[in-house]
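This part of the workshop introduces the protein records we will be handling. The structure tokens are whole numbers drawn from a learned vocabulary of backbone shapes. The record below serves as our worked example for the rest of this section.

===
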Amino acid sequence: MTTPDLDSLRLLVLVDELGSIGQAAARLGIAQPSASKRLSTVERRLGLVLVDRTRRGSALTPDGRVIAGWAHRVLAELDGLLDGAEALRTQHEAQLRVAASMTLAEHLVPGWIGELKRGNPGLYLGLEVTNSDQAAELAREGKVDLGFVESPGALPGLSAKRVATDRLVLVVAGSHPWARRRRPLTAAELAVTPLVVREPGSGTRETVDTALRKAGAGPAKPLLELGSASAVRNAVVAGAGPAVISELDVARDVADRRLVQVAVEGVDFGRELRAVWPAGRRLAGPAAALLALAVRSRSPRG
């Protein structure tokens, strides 16, 4: 016994429903002799007589009606499988998983996502907000489709594209002695001063340490380690100590004089903000569209 092909099973079901090989053949768009030949092939494969052929016409035998009932269930299950596969494919096409470091997630990524959603209202997008190391690792492991990081260093196992630039600034509360300082701070003075810093793995923390090392002054000396830019900003406003933080995070506080920006000479606190994804993988669909939006949205200085 061999398995009948699906087209022959559909023909058998239609013969049962319509009561005629001719009508079933017409429904399928095939000639009646071809339909009769297919049914004969099914009979040979199953070892059963399915069609009672007489001069007055053809009708299914009792065995034929039983087989037709089972065939109907098989075809219904197959249709369910195909519909489910299509739903899963559509769902995957309409999903985008993104991880972003905190500065990017707070100030830039929401605008890019909003523009993407306006062009694709049915898109489901999940955004995980974390530090740069974790965002890079999620992208490297394929747990997200696209990551956005602030880290200045190499990104092994990842492809990267610059999407913006940023600059870190030294800020203090208005009550801090540096708030009234007239000459710039040196790299050495900054390096020996305890700072409110982000946790290890943060792109901001890595940028500060890298910039100070390049200036020959060594890494930052932590006063407090906090897990978000908002926590760092609030600690500085409260007078805990100075911090080097993205100008995006403190622009409003500096404008409102809650914080004072202090100049530092001989240290380059500029950095690139980058999109990352697994090396060797070609971005497609919503991930490629989001990257294109981010690149197009770069400021003139970015």
Notes: The mean pLDDT is 90. Residues 6-91 form a domain with the Arc Repressor Mutant, subunit A fold (CATH 1.10.10.10).
